[in-house]
Amino acid sequence: MHVRYFSLPLIALSPFFASANECGDVTIADMNWNSATLMAHVDQFILENGYGCNAELVPGDTMPTGISMSEKGEPDIAPEFWSNSHKEMLEKGVNEGKLRFAGKAFSEGGEEGFWVPKYMVEQYPQLATIEGIKANANLFPHPEDDTKSGFMSCPAGWTCQITAGHLFDALALESAGFEQIDPGSGAALAGSIARAYDRKQPWFGYYWSPTPVLGRYEMVKVDFGVKADPTHYEQCITQPDCTNPKITAYPPSAVNTITTETFAKESPEAYAFISNRSYSNADMSAMMAWMEENQADGEFAAFEFLESYPHVWTKWVPAEVADKVKQAL
């Protein structure tokens, strides 16, 4: 790249070529769940070894990362951003020329819902609906209070705790005898499903896909009896101060990669890679299962992905970039 760059006539040394070859410093949000940290490490490796960027991972989480990118212009890249919950903030950033929707993190989008194990629905078919759940609340005993029924919600601080809480209220689950349970962490939430499945015990709560958990354990998504209302979902269900939540199914979740406008303009070739790369739910679920089975962090998982899925990631980059990445591996 550098030899070709200096061999060009002086007139051809446009800002585009300079910025493309001088990727410079790039910061990537390393969020605290498996798929996001895998993406962050894959992006870091390809940007560093394929594009010559000085790519640094910084700790991130959905809401603070989005706010920081909008207000401070950093980090440069949020690899996995569940956009439905923060659509207004993101669109404001785009309209103000601060952010870009670079592309889809998951080519098929994400799925959220309330779930019960398939073995429970096979025994009690009515549990496939929310009315059946409420009428049979006694089948879901609270682990710490046998006078109540348990609903496993999201960990405190996660956006899904807000949405699940509002829908818990809209569905009048407390009146049916349910109490929300904070699992404490994403790992504990996943573990509660695994533990219930292994012991064929009751479980009712929130979860999402793609995940290794829903790939490994057969769960049934509970029918709320209504279609999704994206407007109400965005304006109320996702908002902490919503006081009048109404019943709505979860809309299909747009899971995007977000970048700053500065990064997109100053590093167009690197941005092209970020906007091209997208994971299928099947590939990501398989990788997440591998991470769990091997107790691997994002860095080790990135090497596994790059070594095992060249048929996927080499389509995201030009051939010469793919060669550099392969040599670095």
Enumerate the strands of the largest sheet in spatial order, edge to edge or round the barrel.
3-10-4
Fraction in helix: 40-55%
* Count, helices: 17
Topology pattern, helix = H, strand = E: HHEHEHEHEEHHEHEHEHEHEHHHHHH
Range of strand content: 15-25%
Average pLDDT, rounded to a whole number, is 90
Amino-to-carboxy terminus distance: 19 Å
Q: Outline the low-pLDDT stretches.
A: 1-20
Main structural class: alpha/beta
Please tell me how large the radius of gyration is: 22 Å
So, the CATH homologous superfamily of the largest domain?
Periplasmic binding protein-like II
Instruction: Give the CATH architecture of the largest domain.
Output: 3-Layer(aba) Sandwich
Overall spatial form? globular
Q: What is the CATH class name of the largest domain? A: Alpha Beta
- Tell me the domain tally: 2
Characterise the protein shown here:
Residues 1-20 form the signal peptide. Residues 25-307 form the ABC-type glycine betaine transport system substrate-binding domain. InterPro entries: ABC_Gly_betaine_transp_sub-bd (IPR007210). It holds the Pfam family OpuAC. This is ABC transporter substrate-binding protein. It is a single chain. A 3-stranded antiparallel β-sheet has the order 3-10-4, with helices on both faces. Strands 8-5-9 form a 3-stranded antiparallel β-sheet. The chain has helices spanning 2-7, 15-21, 34-51, 62-72, 87-95, 118-123, 130-135, 159-170, 186-199, 212-216, 230-237, 261-266, 268-276, 281-294, 298-308, 310-313, 319-328, and strands at 25-31, 54-60, 77-82, 99-104, 111-117, 149-152, 178-181, 205-209, 219-221, 255-260. The longest helix is centred in the N-terminal third of the chain and has 18 residues, at 34-51. The protein has 2 domains: 2-109 and 254-328, 3-Layer(aba) Sandwich (D-Maltodextrin-Binding Protein, domain 2); 111-237, Glycine betaine-binding periplasmic protein, domain 2 (D-Maltodextrin-Binding Protein, domain 2, 3-Layer(aba) Sandwich). It contains 17 helices and 10 strands. It is α/β, with parallel strands linked by helices. The radius of gyration is 22 Å and the shape is globular. It is 47% helix and 17% strand.
